[in-house]
């Protein structure tokens, strides 16, 4: 008889997806600091990238809490809002916003199918 299909720990798998997305986003935000500094006139954008990178890394470990998923969504909103400081932040929001929405979709669908 074969083992039942499915995840042994769906909550951990979903947290892994969210953490991976936030970690990659944090790294990209850190990598964006140097080009923003070289372009000049983007002090606010530099600070926003640095703060959002730290927030992304902190949220990686806090995804056990449901509020951390909402906070991850607020990071994406802050990227779009940061477009007023520099257009490249909107570009990052366009890349990572849909990725985070997909992570939220995966979370919702896994928890909807989770046996009690």
From TrEMBL:
The protein's name in its UniProt record: DUF4233 domain-containing protein
Organism domain of life: Bacteria
Spans traversing the lipid bilayer: 12-33, 45-64, 84-105
Keywords: Membrane, Transmembrane, Transmembrane helix
InterPro entries the record matches: DUF4233
């Amino acid at each position: 008889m074969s083992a039942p299909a499915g995840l042994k720990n769906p909550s951990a798998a979903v947290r892994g997806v969210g953490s991976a997305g936030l970690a990659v986003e944090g790294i990209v935000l850190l990598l964006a600091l140097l080009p923003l500094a070289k372009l000049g006139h983007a002090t606010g954008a530099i600070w926003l990238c640095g703060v959002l990178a730290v927030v992304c890394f902190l949220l990686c470990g806090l995804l056990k809490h449901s509020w951390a998923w909402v906070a991850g969504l607020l990071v994406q909103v802050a990227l779009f809002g940061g477009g007023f400081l520099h257009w490249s932040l909107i570009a990052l929001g366009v890349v990572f916003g849909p990725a985070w929405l997909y992570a939220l979709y995966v979370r919702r669908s896994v928890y909807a199918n989770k046996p009690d």
